[in-house]
Amino acid sequence: MAMALLDQIRSIFDGDPGVRKVADDPVLSAELLMLFRMILADGSVSESEMVVFRHICKEAFGIPETSIDSVIEYLNDYGYETNGSQAIALFRDLDVERRKLLARHMAEIAKADSKLAESEVKLLRRTLDLLDISPVDLVKPEE
């Protein structure tokens, strides 16, 4: 109980830890913005897409569940400063596995609502081209 109170007081002075993590990492910010662009690609935000987005934030990036709403608010407030081409440019110099991870996350979100809109396919295809990734690379290898 006391630790939770201390964490709340600290977040008031230091800001939300999830938002700090995103704000301090331009590549992470760019990836989250690209995932948001995929969510919005079909013109609507489905609950299933948001569930997948939240899962990716938590599992792939270690953003605490309690921070995700604040991260979304941060991206809404500051994301307009970065367009899709600028976000993708940050990924071009990264290793191929990191680029594949972005593409896989985007595909997960596109498939989340069980219907693949043409606009989602176009965004994913364009992203794959810009990242120099083959659609085959979206399939995770058997482990």
Automatic annotation (TrEMBL):
CDD domains xref list: terB_like
Pfam family membership, one: TerB
InterPro entries in the cross-refs: DjlA_N (IPR007791), TerB-like (IPR029024)
Residue stretches making up the Co-chaperone DjlA N-terminal domain: 33-138
Gene3D superfamilies found in the cross-reference section: TerB-like
The protein's name: Co-chaperone DjlA N-terminal domain-containing protein
Organism: Mesorhizobium atlanticum
